[in-house]
Amino acid sequence: MVKRKLGALEKVEADLPNLQHKIRRDPKSYIEDFRAQHYQYESHREIFMAAPTAATDTGIISLRELIDFISHVADCYPDILKDFPQQLIDMLMQHHLVLEPELREKLVGSLVLLKKKDLLDSATLLHTLFPILITTPSKTLRALLFQKILSELRNANSKTTNHKLNRTMQTVLFNLVTSDRTSSKALWAIKLTRELWKRQIWTDAKAVEVMKEASLSENEKVIVGGVRFFLGGDKEREEAEDDSSDDEAIDVGRIKHQLGINKKTKKKARVAEKAMAMHKKKERKKNAPHPLNFSALHLLHDPQGFADSLFSRHLQSTKAKLNLENKLLVLQLVSRLVGLHKLHIMSLYSYFQKFLTPRQPSVTSFLASLAQASHDLVPPDVLEPLVQKIANEFVSEASAGEVATAGLNAIREICVRQPLAMNETLLQDLVMYKKSKDKGVMMASKGLLSLYRDVGASMLKKRDRGKEASMSLRAGEKLGKRFGEQEAGGIEGLELLEKWKEEERRKKRRETGLPSDGEDDDEEDEAENWANWNVEDDDDSDDSGDWVNVQSDVEIELSDSEDEGKAPPSKKAKQTEEEAKAEAEENDKADQDAFSKLATTKILTPADLAKLAELRAEAAVDAALPGSKSRRATQNTSRHTDDPLTAEEIEGLAALSAGKATREERIAHAREGKPDRSEHKSKEAKRKERKQEQGKSTTNKEKARRKNFLMTLGKARSKNKRSLVETRAVLKAHHDRQRRGGKRGNVGTSH
Amino acid sequence: MGSSAKRKKEKQKDFQKPKLKVGKAKAKPENYTDTSFRSKAIVLNQQSLHVAAPSSNSQFAHHISLLSSKSDNQRRDSLAHLTTSIASRPVNSSLPQPVSVMLPSLLPLILDGNSNVRIQLLKLLRTLPQNDVSDHVAQLLPYIRAGMTHLAADIRVSAVEILSWMVETAGEQVVSCAGGWIKTLNCFLSVLGWHTEESSRWSSSRASFGKSGSQGRSMVKVLGALADFLGAGIGQPGEADDELSGQAYFADSWSFPLCETGHHMISESSTPYAYLNLFGQPRDEEGEMYETREDRYRVFSSRFLPAIERGLKSAREEGGELGRASSGVTKVLKEAISYGPGP
After folding, report:
1. Number of domains within chain B
2. To 10 degrees, what angle do helices A547-572 and A494-512 make?
3. In 3-state terms, chain A is what percent helix, strand and coil (to 5)?
4. Which listed residue, of A616, B94, B198, B230, carries a Cα 20 to 30 Å from A339's Cα?
5. In this entry, which stretches build a coiled coil (chain B) (predicted)?
6. Domain span at residue B233?
7. DSSP state, A413?
8. Which of A15, A37, A46 lies closest to B149 in CB terms?
9. Cβ within 8 Å, pair B111-A1
10. Distance from A308 to chain B by nearest Cα, in Å?
């Protein structure tokens, strides 16, 4: 028998990719061939279904290749392949446990492909893939399925939010979490929800509900997953958003520049066009209104019930078997809920009691949680024993600096939120630590002091009160808030607006020659304002129903306000000192009025509101500048209610009080935050290294320096023998060359 | 100046030729690794040493396991060995291994890429006893159908050959087993390219894909197999009549008050209740069993008759060997039609 080269022959004959390519180009002509392959697939499927566990490697074409082939050309013959998706689904659902991995992956991939070709709807696909995801023991398959499900959900929500699909999927996840609370299968629900939350695909209360149920589960992993979501999910989302907006920033100017310089080809033009389109899209996106995204903690339906059951199930009950780390996570969540929504869980505070000793592991986290859990509606007599205990356990001359610092910081953080938790003797004791030699303790104590100068100066000793506080005490205003007292709500920055208006009025009066401090003529102003308003009103009524015109209206207002905004600074320069002083006094008086009358007596026009926003921004900038008086005051209150209080903040400046850090630690501390740099080198050496890295050569100067000595000898010798004329010629040539700018000369600047 | 000389030297070092000397061993290369080792004893953990030569039975089993070998020649030789050992066994003795054990490793070879293997496989199948084959028709058919629609023409032809052998040996079972009638006919139509009106015309520019092989001869073979198949499925039930009459005779042997006792006895076929499909996948219309000629004829006349008539017409018009072969099919078809749906 003559030996034939069979390998090559087989390749030519059983070439499904080739057939696939031909079918894609001309489906009608190759229908017979396709039909044959479809029968082939059917027979192979039959063989497979008869014995799914047996090896399916039959001959030179396997079932896997046939499935791949058919799903790639499925859109060409939809009527022949009516049942094909269902067959694949059946195969996968029934036999995913015993299938060989490659075939299994091919099945999943083909199903996704069929979805892409619209031969399968996404709900069916998800209903197929998700049950397998939570049951299969294979890690690789799980990873693949998770990725496919995620991308499917993303695709379904890419153009518009697919509410129907989201709702069904969320219901599936919710049922998964609630059906069996002891199983760890709910982890998949958590993983999926968290990922979609991060990508801002799911931002609604239902997703939060899933996580809420997860954190109330009985499986430790699931609990931790749910709790971590509430503690970090929103931050993750923000970061993801920042990342996505940062990357691939396109420099339009550069593209245009390159287009002008480089050779013009079709491809380059296309690339540039694409880049420009992308840029435009991004710009449009930037200008689009920002979607309202509430944090997960705000989307909870029943925070009190949730916090209650979290606390009673995972912390208070004796059956709870969480380890310390996870317990701390749950505690953090509970205390954040309590602090954010001002909930009441009275047993929470007595629960803290036993953990407040310096020997307790990670006690700073407990302290932070306690501080977080206190708010101004917590009865002071509940918090007072805790504060007392912290003071007794942590703050003493004998205790280490870090311990005392942590204790003082914790007390301060509690008292920021509920000043009434402190009694006078304790406060006066603690304030004494401001004289401590330890820097951390000293600063923590001073922090407490400055806090009580603000909120309860009468509790301090006279000499600690400070000038401002004692003056206001003498005047008898600052008495501190009573329990449950709420600040009357106002419009933020309204007093700024009032001040500004007053100034404007005075300016106008001065222009007309009247005494600037006059009290009348309010009505005139007001009338003017109303006139202003009316004009706008007329505009509105003229073309009512036309949205575009309303838009332009706003623009007009804005320009108005800008004009107004420009006026005052020029005038301010002219103001005399006396006036300034008078004004300052008046400002004080206005402050005493506390809640200005402006909002209650007048209606703010849109122009007013625009000005208000401007003034507010200005004030914020001023406050942030160093040396401003209000800076320190804002520090206590600047924290957003959403931000968590961390153990690091409680530890505070403990690092300062250590003083015992080794040299390595100090070096590491100094290096922190700086980009890592290599060894020290001269500038020249670094430059050389850089050039070498870029594959560039040395400079001419360097070449001259390194030139072989013998080669330079001849020239050096002849230099000595030059005549005067020759020397002159050489010098002149050199001079000319320099003026020209070297041998090559400066093109364009030679004359 | 110093650096250049130094560099030159370094460069030279890299390309220095090793000096070979007569009568001395060649110098070892720089990256030479010494793999020799010394040991007091070498112990082999697993070795199968037998005093007696392997029995023919165990050899048989070994060759069955070799059927899934990577090498073509090995597969062919093993098949040849199996064939000879089956053929040369004493008359009326049982097979060295039951067919149900052999089949799982034999079946994938129907789709084997090597033609020699397939030829040898057919030889082996021919040696199998008829009764054993008829019991395993349902297992064999999916592979044969897969072969008939294979991309490679050679495999298609040999699958058709195997099918005609099977019709020869167990025609009744082939046409009546699950999926045996409709699916196999579909495969025939696809092999012949007779599915649609357009594709069956000889003048149509049929874009046939893949290497067609010896197209004409293979078509003749396929037509022959089709004639056999149709004959077995819807041909005049002559033999069946004989069987029936035999059964009637058998029934008659019972004494008078019992009548038609044969129908009430336990059936003699191996799987009498297969049509109930108690343990398999649910079947669709194509996968259904058509056990009687009446059923088969009904399905055939409604689904396949027009396509086959059309195809036969065009084959006849083509003339030559193909036309002659088509006349065989036409004859079978005419007889079937004249017999009609049945008595």
Report:
1. 1
2. 70
3. 70, 0, 30
4. A616
5. none
6. 171-201+212-343
7. H
8. A37
9. no
10. 53
